[in-house]
Design a protein that fits this description.
mainly alpha; about 0% strand; single chain
Protein backbone atom coordinates (compact mmCIF):
# COMPACT_ATOMS: atom_id res chain seq x y z
CA UNK A 1 0.00 0.00 0.00
CA UNK A 2 2.89 2.38 0.75
CA UNK A 3 4.29 2.09 -2.79
CA UNK A 4 0.83 2.74 -4.26
CA UNK A 5 0.41 5.78 -2.01
CA UNK A 6 3.82 7.18 -3.02
CA UNK A 7 2.98 6.60 -6.69
CA UNK A 8 -0.33 8.44 -6.19
CA UNK A 9 1.42 11.37 -4.49
CA UNK A 10 4.00 11.50 -7.29
CA UNK A 11 1.26 11.44 -9.95
CA UNK A 12 -0.71 14.09 -8.05
CA UNK A 13 2.29 16.42 -7.94
CA UNK A 14 3.04 15.89 -11.65
CA UNK A 15 -0.60 16.55 -12.58
CA UNK A 16 -0.56 19.76 -10.50
CA UNK A 17 2.64 20.86 -12.25
CA UNK A 18 1.08 20.25 -15.67
CA UNK A 19 -2.19 21.99 -14.77
CA UNK A 20 -0.70 25.07 -13.08
CA UNK A 21 2.26 25.31 -15.46
CA UNK A 22 0.07 25.27 -18.57
CA UNK A 23 -2.18 27.96 -17.11
CA UNK A 24 0.75 30.18 -16.20
CA UNK A 25 2.44 29.84 -19.61
CA UNK A 26 -0.81 30.72 -21.38
CA UNK A 27 -1.49 33.65 -19.05
CA UNK A 28 2.02 35.10 -19.20
CA UNK A 29 3.46 34.15 -22.59
CA UNK A 30 0.57 33.65 -25.03
CA UNK A 31 -2.73 35.37 -24.23
CA UNK A 32 -1.27 38.88 -23.60
CA UNK A 33 -0.20 38.98 -27.26
CA UNK A 34 -3.87 39.06 -28.28
CA UNK A 35 -3.75 42.78 -27.41
CA UNK A 36 -1.13 43.43 -30.11
CA UNK A 37 -2.96 44.00 -33.42
CA UNK A 38 -0.01 42.64 -35.43
CA UNK A 39 0.19 39.43 -33.42
CA UNK A 40 -3.52 38.90 -32.79
CA UNK A 41 -4.07 36.76 -35.91
CA UNK A 42 -1.13 34.38 -35.37
CA UNK A 43 -1.80 34.11 -31.63
CA UNK A 44 -5.46 33.36 -32.28
CA UNK A 45 -4.44 30.72 -34.83
CA UNK A 46 -2.06 29.22 -32.24
CA UNK A 47 -4.80 29.13 -29.62
CA UNK A 48 -7.27 27.59 -32.09
CA UNK A 49 -4.70 24.98 -33.12
CA UNK A 50 -3.10 24.18 -29.77
CA UNK A 51 -6.14 24.99 -27.63
CA UNK A 52 -7.95 21.67 -28.07
CA UNK A 53 -4.79 19.71 -27.32
CA UNK A 54 -3.99 21.86 -24.28
CA UNK A 55 -7.59 21.43 -23.17
CA UNK A 56 -7.27 17.62 -23.35
CA UNK A 57 -4.00 17.77 -21.42
CA UNK A 58 -5.60 20.07 -18.84
CA UNK A 59 -8.68 17.90 -18.40
CA UNK A 60 -6.48 14.80 -18.11
CA UNK A 61 -4.47 16.55 -15.39
CA UNK A 62 -7.67 17.54 -13.56
CA UNK A 63 -8.98 13.95 -13.71
CA UNK A 64 -5.62 12.69 -12.41
CA UNK A 65 -5.78 15.27 -9.60
CA UNK A 66 -9.29 14.17 -8.65
CA UNK A 67 -8.46 10.45 -8.67
CA UNK A 68 -5.10 10.70 -6.90
CA UNK A 69 -6.34 13.39 -4.51
CA UNK A 70 -9.29 11.24 -3.45
CA UNK A 71 -7.00 8.23 -3.01
CA UNK A 72 -4.49 10.29 -1.01
CA UNK A 73 -7.25 11.58 1.28
CA UNK A 74 -8.45 8.01 1.78
CA UNK A 75 -4.98 6.69 2.65
CA UNK A 76 -4.37 9.57 5.07
CA UNK A 77 -7.69 8.77 6.82
CA UNK A 78 -9.55 11.94 5.83
CA UNK A 79 -12.45 10.12 4.16
CA UNK A 80 -13.67 8.22 7.21
CA UNK A 81 -17.05 9.12 8.67
CA UNK A 82 -15.42 10.45 11.85
CA UNK A 83 -12.95 12.60 9.92
CA UNK A 84 -15.66 14.05 7.70
CA UNK A 85 -17.96 14.78 10.64
CA UNK A 86 -15.22 16.67 12.48
CA UNK A 87 -13.60 18.32 9.44
CA UNK A 88 -14.85 21.81 10.22
CA UNK A 89 -13.55 21.66 13.78
CA UNK A 90 -9.85 21.14 13.05
CA UNK A 91 -7.34 23.07 10.93
CA UNK A 92 -6.43 20.22 8.57
CA UNK A 93 -10.10 19.38 8.05
CA UNK A 94 -10.76 23.01 7.15
CA UNK A 95 -7.90 22.90 4.62
CA UNK A 96 -9.40 19.72 3.10
CA UNK A 97 -12.83 21.34 2.86
CA UNK A 98 -11.35 24.49 1.31
CA UNK A 99 -9.42 22.41 -1.20
CA UNK A 100 -12.54 20.45 -2.19
CA UNK A 101 -14.55 23.67 -2.56
CA UNK A 102 -11.74 25.31 -4.53
CA UNK A 103 -11.38 22.29 -6.82
CA UNK A 104 -15.12 22.42 -7.52
CA UNK A 105 -14.75 26.09 -8.48
CA UNK A 106 -11.74 25.36 -10.71
CA UNK A 107 -13.69 22.65 -12.54
CA UNK A 108 -16.72 24.93 -13.00
CA UNK A 109 -14.53 27.78 -14.29
CA UNK A 110 -12.71 25.41 -16.63
CA UNK A 111 -15.98 24.08 -18.05
CA UNK A 112 -17.27 27.62 -18.62
CA UNK A 113 -13.96 28.78 -20.12
CA UNK A 114 -13.29 25.79 -22.37
CA UNK A 115 -16.83 25.18 -23.58
CA UNK A 116 -18.32 28.67 -23.70
CA UNK A 117 -16.32 31.80 -22.97
CA UNK A 118 -13.00 30.90 -24.64
CA UNK A 119 -14.44 29.75 -27.99
CA UNK A 120 -16.99 32.61 -27.99
CA UNK A 121 -14.22 35.14 -27.33
CA UNK A 122 -12.10 33.68 -30.15
CA UNK A 123 -15.07 33.87 -32.54
CA UNK A 124 -15.75 37.47 -31.48
CA UNK A 125 -12.10 38.43 -32.02
CA UNK A 126 -12.19 36.94 -35.51
CA UNK A 127 -15.37 38.91 -36.35
CA UNK A 128 -14.11 42.10 -34.70
CA UNK A 129 -10.28 42.06 -34.90
CA UNK A 130 -9.94 45.58 -33.49
CA UNK A 131 -12.07 44.65 -30.46
CA UNK A 132 -14.39 47.63 -30.68
CA UNK A 133 -17.75 45.89 -30.33
CA UNK A 134 -19.17 45.67 -26.78
CA UNK A 135 -19.82 41.93 -27.18
CA UNK A 136 -16.17 41.33 -28.10
CA UNK A 137 -15.01 43.30 -25.08
CA UNK A 138 -17.43 41.42 -22.80
CA UNK A 139 -16.45 37.94 -24.06
CA UNK A 140 -12.73 38.70 -23.93
CA UNK A 141 -13.13 39.94 -20.36
CA UNK A 142 -15.09 36.84 -19.33
CA UNK A 143 -12.50 34.50 -20.84
CA UNK A 144 -9.57 36.51 -19.48
CA UNK A 145 -10.88 36.79 -15.92
CA UNK A 146 -12.04 33.16 -15.81
CA UNK A 147 -8.52 32.10 -16.82
CA UNK A 148 -6.84 34.43 -14.33
CA UNK A 149 -9.11 33.50 -11.44
CA UNK A 150 -8.79 29.79 -12.24
CA UNK A 151 -5.00 30.07 -12.26
CA UNK A 152 -4.94 32.01 -8.99
CA UNK A 153 -7.32 29.53 -7.40
CA UNK A 154 -5.16 26.64 -8.62
CA UNK A 155 -2.12 28.19 -6.94
CA UNK A 156 -4.11 28.49 -3.71
CA UNK A 157 -5.07 24.82 -4.04
CA UNK A 158 -1.39 23.91 -4.20
CA UNK A 159 -0.92 25.84 -0.95
CA UNK A 160 -3.89 24.02 0.59
CA UNK A 161 -2.29 20.71 -0.40
CA UNK A 162 0.89 21.70 1.41
CA UNK A 163 -1.13 22.61 4.51
CA UNK A 164 -2.98 19.27 4.40
CA UNK A 165 0.29 17.34 4.37
CA UNK A 166 2.52 19.59 6.49
CA UNK A 167 0.07 21.47 8.73
CA UNK A 168 -0.59 25.19 9.08
CA UNK A 169 2.50 26.04 11.15
Amino acid sequence: MRVLYLLAVYTHILAAIVWVGTNIVLAIAVVPHLRDPELRGPVLALLRGAGPRLSRVGWSALVALLVTGTFNLYVRGYLTTDAMMSAASNPIGIAVLLKLLGMSCVIALNVAHDLRWGPAAADAIERDPRGLQPETVRLRSLARYAGRFGTLLSLLLVAAGVVIVRGWF
